[in-house]
Structure formats: C-alpha cells, structure tokens
Fold this sequence. Notes:
Layout: H1 3-20, H2 25-35, H3 37-41, H4 47-70, H5 78-107, H6 115-129, H7 131-137, H8 142-165, H9 169-184, H10 197-217, E1 227-238, E2 243-248, E3 250-252, E4 258-266, E5 272-281, E6 284-294, E7 301-308, E8 316-324, E9 329-338
Parallel strand pairs: 3-9
Antiparallel strand pairs: 1-2, 1-4, 4-7, 5-6, 5-8, 8-9
Helix pairs in contact: 2-5, 4-5, 4-8, 5-6, 5-8, 8-9, 9-10
Amino acid sequence: xxxxxxxxxxxxxxxxxxxxxxxxxxxxxxxxxxxxxxxxxxxxxxxxxxxxxxxxxxxxxxxxxxxxxxxxxxxxxxxxxxxxxxxxxxxxxxxxxxxxxxxxxxxxxxxxxxxxxxxxxxxxxxxxxxxxxxxxxxxxxxxxxxxxxxxxxxxxxxxxxxxxxxxxxxxxxxxxxxxxxxxxxxxxxxxxxxxxxxxxxxxxxxxxxxxxxxxxxxxxxxxxxxxxxxxxxxxxxxxxxxxxxxxxxxxxxxxxxxxxxxxxxxxxxxxxxxxxxxxxxxxxxxxxxxxxxxxxxxxxxxxxxxxxxxxxxxxxxxxxxxxxxxxxxxxxxxxxxxx
Length: 339
C-alpha cells in the first residue's frame, strides 16, 4: 500500500469513527470549553498565551476555509477537509467564547444596554455547542461566517489590548474592529489582491463603516476589563483610610447637606483611564465629575465625588453612572433620599 492510499485509508477510518460517536461531540466540546473558564480564575497572567491562541484560531480559520474553497468537490479528501474545518473552528471558537463569557459578565451592568452584548456571547456559546445548529446558522454562507468570526475576534481583542498594552477602552474599540476587518478580509478577497487599488479601497471603506458603526454601538459593549469592585453612597469619606463613612442605600433628607458616591474600580496593571461620575436624580442628569484612575490594585482604584443636596433638590431616586471617557457604562450606584 502506497503512502497516498494509506493516508486515504486512515482518513476513512477516522471519518467512520467520528460518525459513530458524533452524537457525543457537542458535550465533549462543551466540557473542554468550560475548562477554559479556569484561565479567568487564574488572573491575567495567561492572557499572552490566550493571545497566541487567538492568532492560531485566525490562521486555522483562514487557511482551512481557503483549503476547502480550492479543493475539488470530487476529491476524496473534500468531505474530510470540510468536516475538519467545521469541527476545528467550532471547538476553537467555543473555547474562546467561554473564556470571554465571565469577563464580559463582570464588566456588564444589569438593566443596561451593554447586557445585550453579553446575551450575544451566551447565544453564540449555545450555537457552537450543537453541531447541527452551528452548521445551519453559521456555516451557511460567507456572510454569517464573517459575522460570527468578527464578533468573537473583536470581543477578544477589545479585552486583550487594554490588558496587554494599557490602551484606553475607546481606542481599544476602534483598533479592535479595524484589526478584525483586516484579518477577515481574505474571506472575500484573495491575499494577492489586497494591495490593488480597487480591492484595497473596498477594504478601506469596510474599515471606515465598521469604525462608524462601533462608535454608534459603543454603549452596547461592556468596557472590559474595567469593572466596579465596590460602590456605595455615603455621608462622608475618610480621607486617610480612603473609605466611605456611614454608607447608605436610603436616607432621610433632614439635616442632609452633602452626599458622596464612593467607587472602587478594577483595572489591570499599566492601564490608565479617565472616568466620569454622572449624577442623576429621577433619571435626569444633574452633575458630571471627572475621575482619573490607574490600574494595578487588586481591590480596585478608590475614588469618589460629592453632591450638595439641600431643599427641594434632595428627595428622589438617585443614580450615579460610572462611565469611561468614551461613554461606556462601567457600573451604577443607586440610592434614595426620602422625606
């Protein structure tokens, strides 16, 4: 038996074996995907390794899809190659999605727009768990493949860039979406044509449209890796210990003159970000106070702002939205002042 026949024989045996135990693959995939969540529990030390993993995902996505594209359908290897493309990409992306899930969960705010992005991650995780659903919804054409790959690569880069390089969130959004477009452009355009004027112009327009789109949708994206470790309203701040004095969720307006909003914001080492405490009373903004933070402290960077409340401008339901300089919501502190 020659080498070619031996390879075909082995491939055929593997195909039959996979078909026999195919029904167990979704659960095996989910099991290995759940293991990736442990990386998040180990902290940011593993991010560089996951970054390499992302590069590997990108390479396999483009090369495998390109291999299948130019492989004749009548070739004996075509069904095997097609199966490898779907199975490998499905499992790799599921691992990536499960890694991102707890990260975006901790940076999202309940009952806010950025929960929608978290819901999309959960939906994609469910889709990648079941092969038939994945093939029907994702692998149906290049557009759905592009949207799926783009979402996941963008979500990871948007988290990874601030962690590795200390980039501010608003810049991370723009760099991530532009990089994603460039990485996935070969799905539609041959590598050799990227530098031609017409094709290059199309890629430039696509990047420009993506930048404008992400600017409009930035409110729907959690500002990873920033998150509120602790937040509360209080009647004073201990400047020495940098802790709130007499925190409250509901307080009487009698004798009340000044209230404070205290927040502890987590950011990775080396990251610097300007934030805003946006004070709202009964849903109406009454004050914005700028806050500058520096990352690295495990319990979060402690900062606070204050508001004078006297007379008729005291009672009501208050909320202090903590936002990035680019307008992304990190978290919210709510309290009520009663008569």
